[in-house]
Design goal:
Helices cover 41% and strands 15% of the residues. The chain has 14 helices and 12 strands. The protein has helices spanning 11-17, 43-51, 65-78, 89-98, 115-127, 140-146, 169-178, 191-194, 228-242, 248-280, 299-305, 320-330, 360-366, 382-396; strands at residues 82-86, 106-110, 131-135, 151-157, 182-186, 204-208, 222-226, 285-289, 312-317, 335-336, 346-348, 372-376. A 7-stranded mixed sheet has the order 1-7-6-5-4-2-3, with helices on both faces. Strands 8-9-12-11-10 form a 5-stranded mixed sheet. It binds pyridoxal-5'-phosphate. Residues 88-90, 93, 114, 117, 157, 161, 186, 188-189, 208, 210-211, 220, 222 line the site of pyridoxal-5'-phosphate.
């Protein structure tokens, strides 16, 4: 049976053709509409656009044809009704929360969060009269106990950055929905290729396009996905008037990135699997955290919720910070960088970089020790990556 619409296409076809909006020139690749404004045929048409009675574009802070192609393609991949793109992952996280919260509301979040997400929830929201509670994400009893009538939404990352701690999306969504709270999931580590939170009951999903979507270290971007009514009526006014719009150029890069994301991630997961196994054999390494390793404490949940373990490995070095720094400095192929999801393998020491600001006590609570390093596995030949890691580990002594 021939597909009748892009919603009938399978994931790979959606990734390559979803949202494609060809101009009358019939260009093969998606066009880059690098423009800020749009012109109208008449004053009446301009009025109709502003009234929402005419479908066309108004201004690139509101919408742009290249950005719209990215939004549609990502919504198709994620299984969401609608999407609004943003200038970075953090503007997506901030907008997804701020657009729906007001003073007196309450938010429950898992404690293991990316540093900037932690800042928004622990530092910014309370300034505006929003009460917050942090819970240990895998402990469902803590979610249950923290939810109250004022809880407007819950927020979590799974897997969390950098501990790879998983949260049962379906179970937390059931609890949150019973309390009438919206479920907002930061799905950056998984991408829609490895995990589609909406299928497990999440209401809103946020992404950093900067990571695997671009996947080649070129530009920042982000997106919020969810029900059409939420995106159009709650999120869109907030974003249109506060202005963290995705640049059309960045949208074009991310749109082309989506075409190959599944293929890149499959290879990156394969490489990560091989390298995780190699690291687990090394005496300098105290513990390797990777969802596909038999030692992973939440393997059952990983299998239920994710289609593969991902491209990120975290591991603890027995020699603490000194050993971690020695390892990073001893690498010659893998780069020291706090980005992730890239074709190039990148390694970072979270305690002194991405998670420095959350402070030592909070780091201990979420399991970010001084010997922990986070490796984002790229597309290089895994033999070269293992040679590099092996030599650097030998150098720790
Ligand atoms: C990187 C990251 C973000 C922020 O994305 P940017 O595009 O850098 O703003 C948010 N959440 C997680 C889990 C991330 O890893």
């Amino acid at each position: 049976m021939a597909p009748t619409s892009e919603r009938d296409w399978r994931a790979r076809t959606r990734a390559v053709r979803g949202g494609l909006d060809r101009s009358p020139h019939g260009e093969t690749s998606e066009a880059l509409y690098l423009n800020s404004g749009f012109v109208y045929d008449s004053a009446e048409q301009a009025e109709a656009r502003f009234l929402g009675e005419d479908e066309g574009f108004i201004y690139s802070r509101y919408g742009n044809p290249t950005v719209a192609m990215f939004e549609r393609r990502l919504a198709l991949l994620d299984g969401a009704e609608a999407c609004f793109a943003t200038s970075s992952g953090m503007s997506a996280v901030f907008a997804a929360l701020m657009c729906q919260l007001q003073a007196g509301d309450h938010v429950v979040a898992s404690r293991a969060l990316f540093g900037s997400c932690h800042f928004i929830i622990s530092q910014l929201l309370p300034r505006y009269g929003v009460e917050i509670s942090f819970v240990d994400g895998p402990d469902l009893a803590q979610w249950q106990a923290a939810l109250r009538p004022q809880t407007a939404c819950v927020f979590f990352e799974t897997p969390a950055n950098p501990t790879l701690e998983l949260i049962d999306i379906e179970a937390v969504a059931d609890l949150a929905h019973a309390a009438d709270a919206q479920v907002v999931v930061d799905n950056v580590f998984s991408t829609p290729v490895l995990q589609r939170p909406i299928e497990f009951g999440a209401d809103i999903v946020v992404y950093s396009g900067t990571k695997h979507m671009d996947g080649q270290g070129r530009c920042l971007g982000g997106a919020v996905l969810g029900p059409e009514q939420f995106i159009d009526e709650v999120l869109q006014p907030f974003l249109r008037h506060t202005g963290p719009a995705l640049s059309p150029f960045n949208a074009w890069v991310l749109l082309k990135g989506l075409e190959t994301m599944e293929l890149r991630l499959a290879e990156q997961c394969r490489n990560a699997r091989t390298i995780a196994g190699m690291l687990a054999e090394r005496s300098e390494v105290q513990r390797v955290v990777y969802p596909e390793l038999p030692s992973f404490p939440q393997q059952e949940l990983a299998t239920r919720q994710m289609t593969a373990g991902g491209s990120i490995i975290s591991f603890d070095l027995a020699g603490g910070k000194a050993a971690a720094f020695k390892l990073l400095n001893g690498l010659s192929c893998i780069d020291i960088s706090n980005n992730l999801g890239d074709a190039k393998s990148l390694i970072t020491h979270p305690a002194t970089t991405t998670h420095r600001a959350i402070g030592p006590e909070e780091r201990v609570r979420v399991g970010i020790g001084d010997g922990l390093v986070r490796l984002s596995v790229g597309l290089e030949d895994p033999a070269d990556l293992m040679d590099d890691l092996g030599a650097a580990l030998d150098g720790i002594g």
